[in-house]
């Protein structure tokens, strides 16, 4: 990967992450949080890449600096320095408390992590709780939607939870496995449901063709809107 720095007359700069791939055309996107990613064909000359960036100068500025006001759930640290965590779409204050046993208590406006044997256990206790809570919730939501899939010939999948850096989930239909991103526990339930239904649809349709979307939208008519909102992230710092 190569970093190209785009500079504006105001003095502001935007780093562009360039990756060369086996592809025909250049593609640019801005992730929630403002990261600008550019994919280019393997043999594209630098002059062509620079011209492409220049032609998108205004678009990059708008989307990068608007993006800075938003943060995707995947980009949020589980234990942020400001002590504000997101759990099921709700911002809550995180408090820690030394005690005789490890325990996590979730309230409408705060989460309390009780821990023993020193503050260094806070992350371990909190992450173990989130993983267990995610597994329990994701399983319940999968069971809720499962009848519609079983009716069409799908088998009950094995569910796993893992941290991903760039995707919400993955389905391996040959093994009958669905793995969901632990970061989803930060999101509102309607977005969790969307990812679960999306991945379950892959049990029946391996690609993203017409059949896939036809079935997905039959089960969840507003799936496209949910996907768009989820990937938009949340507004932070105004």
Instruction: Quickly name the level 1 CATH class of the largest domain.
Output: Alpha Beta
Number of domains: 3
Strand order across the largest sheet: 1-2-4-3
The helix/strand class is alpha/beta
Give the mean pLDDT: 90
Distance between the termini: 32 Å
Q: What level of helicity do the residues show?
A: 25-40%
For this structure, the CATH topology of the largest domain is Zincin-like
Question: The biggest beta sheet, please?
Answer: 4 strands, mixed
Along the chain, the helix and strand elements come as: EEEEHHEEEEEHEEEHHHE
Shape: globular
Can you say what the CATH homologous superfamily of the largest domain is? Answer: Metalloproteases ("zincins"), catalytic domain
Unreliable spans: none
Give the number of DSSP strands: 13
What percentage of amino acids are in beta strands? 25-35%
Give the number of helices: 6
Rg over alpha carbons: 21 Å
How would you characterize the overall build of this protein?
This protein is α/β, with parallel strands linked by helices. It folds into three domains: 2-68, no CATH class; 84-127, no CATH class; 132-235, Zincin-like (2-Layer Sandwich), CATH 3.30.2010.10. Helices cover 35% and strands 28% of the residues. Strands 1-2-4-3 form a four-stranded mixed β-sheet, with helices on one face. The two termini are 32 Å apart. The mean pLDDT is 90.
């Amino acid at each position: 990967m190569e970093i190209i720095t785009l500079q504006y007359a105001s003095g502001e700069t935007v780093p562009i992450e360039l990756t060369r791939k086996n592809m025909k055309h250049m593609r640019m996107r801005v992730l929630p949080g403002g990261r600008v990613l550019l994919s280019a064909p393997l043999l594209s000359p630098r002059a062509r890449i620079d011209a492409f960036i220049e032609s998108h100068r205004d678009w990059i500025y708008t989307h990068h600096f608007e993006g800075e006001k938003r943060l995707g759930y995947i980009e949020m640290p589980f234990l942020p320095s400001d002590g504000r965590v997101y759990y099921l779409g709700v911002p809550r204050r995180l408090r820690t408390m030394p005690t005789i046993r490890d325990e996590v208590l979730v309230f409408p406006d705060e989460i309390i992590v009780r821990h023993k044997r020193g503050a260094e256990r806070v992350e371990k206790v909190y992450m173990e709780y989130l993983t267990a809570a995610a597994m329990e919730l994701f399983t319940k939501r999968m069971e809720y939607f499962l009848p519609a899939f079983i009716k069409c010939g799908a088998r009950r999948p094995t569910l796993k939870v893992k941290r991903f850096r760039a995707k919400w989930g993955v389905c391996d239909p040959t093994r009958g496995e669905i793995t969901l991103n632990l970061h989803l526990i930060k999101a509102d339930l309607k977005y969790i449901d969307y990812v679960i239904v999306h991945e379950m649809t892959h049990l029946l349709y391996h690609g993203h063709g017409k059949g896939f979307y036809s079935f997905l939208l039959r089960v969840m008519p507003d799936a496209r809107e949910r996907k768009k909102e989820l990937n938009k992230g949340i507004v932070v710092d105004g």
